[in-house]
Design a protein that fits this description.
Order of helices and strands: EHHHEHEHHEHHHH
Number of helices: 10
CATH architecture of the largest domain: 2-Layer Sandwich
Strand order of the largest sheet: 1-2-4-3
Radius of gyration: 23 Å
Strand content: 5-15%
Helix content: 40-55%
Number of domains: 2
């Protein structure tokens, strides 16, 4: 398995700050933001993390994800707010074998299918027809372009223990690659329970993290609902 960033927004931190401050027109040019001291930029960014998230859509990452199963990519592309380009089994035959899930019975069945596939191709069966018998565990490569807001939203659930193991592994590697470039995103791209202190899948009782996560009661939720319903507060948009 391999995950690497092949393209990303160069002035990511500066773009976040500049797009956030467009509501204060004329205050700063983009170059003014670029020229700010790093500590000042980080201070502004820290204040952005729990506000409206639209500025985070201006930062993009393009990942090359290779050596993963097609069953994983079937799940990955269900995220619609991203762009994808994937190796085609209609035009080429797989060269990486099958993803190893550690189950010997599955591995044996995969090997039998792959040998049969090779025989069919040698006998002149077109790739686009022979591919119909391939297992979803066959390895593939995919390009994924995604903005930072969507990436962080995906990470909240895809880093969770409730997610398939291969998906968890890929997302841990994706986060690691992002943090190599922008260390300040370490706490922004985070699993739901760490980020918010509550469980994203409260009915999943087998989770080994569950014991340390707040499980709000129905009474607490109802109290919050009543407080919100009776609240009459309008925020001051000039507050930074």
């Amino acid at each position: 398995m391999k995950v690497e960033i092949i393209d990303s927004t160069v002035f990511a931190l500066e773009m976040l700050i500049y797009t956030k401050q467009t509501r204060l027109q004329g205050e700063r040019s983009f170059q003014d933001v670029v020229d700010m001291q790093y500590d000042e930029k980080i201070a502004i960014y820290e204040g952005m993390k729990d506000t409206i998230q639209s500025p985070f859509e201006f930062v993009d990452f393009t990942f090359l994800i290779a050596g993963v199963s097609r069953s994983f990519t079937h799940q990955l592309v269900r995220t619609r707010n991203a762009s994808y380009a994937q190796e085609s089994l209609r035009a080429v035959k797989p060269t990486q074998g099958c993803y190893d899930h550690g189950n010997p019975d599955v591995a044996e069945a995969q090997e039998i299918i792959m040998h049969r596939y090779e025989d069919m191709v040698k006998d002149g069966v077109p790739y686009q027809e022979a591919r119909e018998m391939l297992p979803t565990g066959v390895k593939t490569s995919i390009l994924m372009k995604v903005n930072l807001r969507e990436l962080a939203k995906m990470a909240e659930v895809r880093l969770c223990t409730r997610t398939a193991g291969e998906y968890q592994q890929v997302f841990k590697m994706m986060k690691a690659e992002v943090v190599k470039i922008y260390p300040w995103l370490e706490d922004y791209i985070e699993v739901y329970c760490v980020k918010y202190g509550i469980c994203c899948f409260p009915r999943y009782e087998e989770c080994p993290v569950r014991a340390g996560v707040v499980q709000p009661s129905m009474v607490a939720k109802e109290n919050i609902k009543l407080l919100w319903r009776d609240a009459n507060h309008v925020a001051d948009p000039s507050i930074r």
